[in-house]
Fold:
Amino acid sequence: MMRKTMLALVAGVALGAMVPQIVTPTAAEENATRDTYEYLDLFGDIFERIRVAYVEPVDEKKLIEAAINGMLASLDPHSAYLPPQNFKDMREQTKGEFGGLGIEVTMEGGFVKVVAPIDDTPAAKAGMKAGDFITHIDGESVLGLTLSEAVDKMRGEVGTEIVLTISREGAEDPFDVTIERAVIKIQAVRARTEGDVGILRITTFNEHTYDNLATGIDKIKAELGEGGVQGYVVDLRNNPGGLLTQAIRVADAFLESGEIVSTRGRNLEEADRVNAKPGDLTDGKPIVVLVNGGSASASEIVAGALQDQRRAILLGAKTFGKGSVQTVMRLGDKGAMKLTTARYYTPSGRSIQALGIEPDILVEERKIPEAEADKAAEAVPRMRSEADLRGSLQNELSDDERRQLEEERARHEATAKLRQEDFQLAYALDLLAGLSIYDHKGN
Structure:
């Protein structure tokens, strides 16, 4: 009787204030509704049979959670059920402090895939890289586990060790990495200077990211002087993303106007578009954004907005390609559900889902070992110059000219050294120097 009543409520909807009209469902709609209730009955029947007939007693709560996890996992890699403890952990993570290894992960092909290690965390210090696949946790295969279950196994008491078996592209065989769990304290933005360029390293998008960014820019301006900043490098490499609201605020920090991002869900009438507000924290200075395969989600929103609005040059490698939006829906005291509810689009209308963002200048990551660099330098004989010729005229420099020459030489030597440690960043600094020269000539 209850089912018939529910079917009747689904079948007829009253519309209009004065003259109610009954919308009669089609035969196909009635059949679909009937099939849905039949399958719900089937689920209940199977659950009851497992409960009373399985060879061993079952934990009914875990059985239902497994069914929920299976339903959500069948949708996409990012939809998931968050039991109360997992939901609490997620909220702590967005606040910038939590316990664990310091890696953002997803599921691919049944294995756990590393989206990116977070700077200065146990995972990063142990050498974990974006794109690594975790095949075993403490010797146990991850096949058959949900993402939540795998994450639960990687969490643990601070100070305890965990062994992850890693499969990495380019490595002949899987190998083990031992990591000690720690309290992860994330500094969302680190600001420093290289010569007259401000470096803004954004590691994640949590509740503090925009405020940290604004403070970092102020610090750079104070160090170099208002007119002394040549440009900025915004480093989004291995930034796995985070809060959409923070990504929007960060992009807005560099834009005076124009669209930042739009989102479109199942109901096109609920599409949303976000535009920048006036006010560029960097005063219109040139910007180079560094990205790679570990730049995902919120990072791609920022990179896509600045690229499409021609506000920055993107340099590095193609990004991860996560172009979907998850909404966290609370389920009372039973935790929460993270459900994919929309796709996001860059200002030009691009969906980067599974495609990623191509940089304007492709520069693959590489490191030149110091020994190789020294060997290469020794192999090239120093060219003789006018100053080496006997009796050549001397250049009489003023103190200011000599100081400027020495500063320029020191900048080039520092950039040359940086190429051995971070080739992409050194390339970005060279690019900003070129843009500055071009801008001065234009004026």
User: Anything to note?
Assistant: The two ends are 82 Å apart (CA to CA). The longest helix spans residues 27-53. Confidence is low (pLDDT under 50) at residues 1-20.
